[in-house]
Design goal:
The protein is of the alpha/beta class and 260 residues long. The protein contains 8 helices and 13 strands. The chain is 22% helix and 27% strand. Strands 1, 2, 3, 4, 10, 11, 12 and 13 form an 8-stranded mixed sheet that branches. It is globular, with a radius of gyration of 20 Å.
């Protein structure tokens, strides 16, 4: 039952070329940067990544993206990642953009053993009707478009069929974990991490604090260890290394004025 692996490199040593990966995180919050860096150092490529976005500020999945290691992305947000946009529009990478809530449910459904489900999100749009550009040809044309999806009526409403997602591996980050793989996430870093962990056939978690079994109360567990196969304890320096995407501060009040 002890799932602790000595190093991040050892934890991802069997991830092969062309593997599919579910990766937790949202922006810079809750991103398994140490595991991603270990995967980068291994040199594997042609990866199919499922994640909300593809990294930001040259960190997270942006490390693999910039190195040309990612062949396909299933996600919801390109955001300010200019390299992601460049590769997508240049035809260098295949991208399936789907509604964010649908992505979350597809990951959860895959992890729960549900092969497909119906949702109203996307009905009447290219999400359901097909035609979304998955890959451009590099000259502004569409080389590969999304296929149409099944639409059915339930109780007078239209719903589109979406498939659950299962991946070969999942990489996640947690604030605390025990040797059995039970995880606790800190506030907004919970985001897509539990869902990604559920979707992976082999899930690897980097944890900022490793505790012994029983130290996490059952009611405090956010993700049970049944979904986690490997745990990597981060040293203090790596655990504390957290970037800020947009630093915002309040302007000081003008002299002679009273705030409140």
């Amino acid at each position: 039952m002890d799932k602790v692996v000595a190093t991040a490199g050892e934890a991802v040593a069997d991830v092969p070329e062309g593997a599919s990966l579910a990766v937790g995180g949202f922006g810079l919050s809750g991103v398994p940067n140490v595991l991603i860096q270990a995967l980068y150092e291994r040199g594997v490529g042609s990866l199919a990544v499922v994640s909300n976005n593809c990294g930001a500020l040259e960190s997270g999945l942006a490390v693999l993206l910039a190195a040309g290691r990612i062949a396909r992305v299933t996600g919801s947000y390109i955001g300010g990642n200019k390299e992601f946009a460049r590769q997508y529009l240049g035809g260098e990478i295949e991208v399936e953009m789907i509604p964010q809530g649908t992505l979350a449910e597809r990951l959860r459904a895959g992890g729960a053993g549900i092969p497909a489900f119906y949702t109203p999100a996307g009905v009447g749009t290219q999400v359901a009707e097909g035609g979304l550009p998955w890959r451009y040809d590099g000259s502004g044309g569409v080389a590969l478009a999304s296929p149409p999806k099944e639409v059915r009526e339930f109780d007078g409403g239209q719903y589109v069929l979406e498939r659950g997602i299962r991946t070969d591996f999942a990489l996640v980050r947690a604030a605390k974990g025990d040797r059995h793989g039970n995880l606790v996430f800190n506030k907004s870093s919970r985001n897509f991490n539990p869902l990604a962990a559920m979707a992976g056939r082999v899930t690897v978690a980097e944890v900022e604090e490793l505790v012994e079994p029983g130290e996490i109360e059952a009611d405090a567990v956010h993700l049970p260890g049944i979904f986690v196969q490997r745990v990597v304890a981060l040293p203090p320096g790596q655990a504390a290394d957290k970037k800020i995407e947009r630093r915002t501060i309040s302007a000081p009040p003008a002299r002679g004025t009273v705030s409140g």
